[in-house]
Amino acid sequence: DQQVKQNSPSLSVQEGRISILNCDYTNSMFDYFLWYKKYPAEGPTFLISISSIKDKNEDGRFTVFLNKSAKHLSLHIVPSQPGDSAVYFCFGAGANNLFFGTGTRLTVIP
Amino acid sequence: EPEVTQTPSHQVTQMGQEVILRCVPISNHLYFYWYRQILGQKVEFLVSFYNNEISEKSEIFDDQFSVERPDGSNFTLKIRSTKLEDSAMYFCASSEIEFGELFFGEGSRLTVL
Fold first, then answer.
1. Closest CA to B39 of A2, A90, A97
2. Pairwise CB contact (< 8 Å): B103 & A98
């Protein structure tokens, strides 16, 4: 059972525009959520997280929004840069476990 | 829906013992990965595997670690002599193409005493 879903396997965005990556989850017991990005041939690197008690967290060009009633979170990247091209994973974390989305490949076109 | 399965879900072992964590990736997938998460810390990449050989490994993946695909279906992670700091949740993942969707198992929790 996929408790965390990223329904868009890929996304292409023009440089300078906003990238919006979406993630849906089914488990209302998640304590926090994380976004990681993975460049080709590298392991994932942590990007940004949000606690389940918040609805927004911002770090530079990256903002994560959490809508608990809809069990939905999104990552906004503004402005998008070619170096942002990577696969982005959404994670939902509970007390003892971690559930992963399958990733969305973001391509930022110069 | 196909899924990645991992066994055991939880293993407790004594320091210095060998541990083998098993993963059954999705059947048509070709790329395999191990990650770990030490409690309270971030997910860390360990190793990637393709075409019966390691394609990439992190600094964590030292000589105490090895991976194997012994029979075409299982993908195993072996820790030769466990240390206390190896206690973590270990996640296996697989993908059909190199940069495609990555499907994760639910993890194997290793506790080293």
1. A97
2. no
